[in-house]
Amino acid sequence: DRPPFTPGQPDRSIEELRGVDVGAPMWQFVPYSQIQRISITQGELPLWNRYNATGRPLWGQGQSLILDPLHWVTLIAPDPGLGWDLKFFLHRVVFALGVGVAVLAITQSWVAAAVMALLAPFAGYFLFRLNHAAQFSFTYAPWVMWAWFQMASAVTARDLARAGRRLA
């Protein structure tokens, strides 16, 4: 109920979090992923949290992250901690690559694309979203924008169809 929050930690300072719920991963997302892991090992789809009240939807509002492809790393990794670390790392990589590809589509400059791809994972808003259930929306947004850029620059029906598939 007061600092230090980790046993043996002498640091009692509290940082101004500006409204970020840094406890959400520990109090919600990590426990949800454990419930999902148990459900999968029992041959069930992890759509229901039977341990809360008399049962609550586990997949509503994106809270369980089950439809995020990168979240499955936390479910199939032998160690959940390693899975979560890999998930956060992969979210940054996918976001960076998406920004690089989108910038390349707009500018046709490899230098601009490389610089933006290197800087993108350190954007303040991206770091804020790591503590939010809908972090995937920010990770995949550059890929959606890239598909729109491809659609806007399509000159043939084939290019338009390809861009439409990417957007879908």
Shape: globular
Structure annotation, total helices: 7
Name the beta content range: under 5%
Helix and strand sequence: HEEHHHHHH
Distance between the termini: 47 Å
Helix content: 55-70%
Largest β sheet strand count, sense and barrel closure: 2 strands, antiparallel
| Rg over C-alpha atoms, rounded to the nearest angstrom | 20 Å
Mean pLDDT value: 84
Total number of strands: 2
Q: Which blocks of ≥5 consecutive residues have pLDDT under 50?
A: none
The chain-level structural class is mainly alpha
Strand order of the largest sheet: 1-2
Descriptive notes:
- The structure is a single chain.
- The chain is an all-alpha fold and 168 residues long.
- Helices cover 57% and strands 2% of the residues.
- The protein contains seven helices and two strands.
- The protein has helices at residues 24-41, 72-76, 80-107, 110-119, 124-129, 135-152, 157-167, and strands at 48-49, 56-57.
- A hairpin with a 6-residue loop joins strand 1 (48-49) and strand 2 (56-57).
- Helix 3 (80-107) runs parallel beside helix 6.
- The relative contact order is 0.10.
- The model has no long low-confidence stretch (mean pLDDT 84).
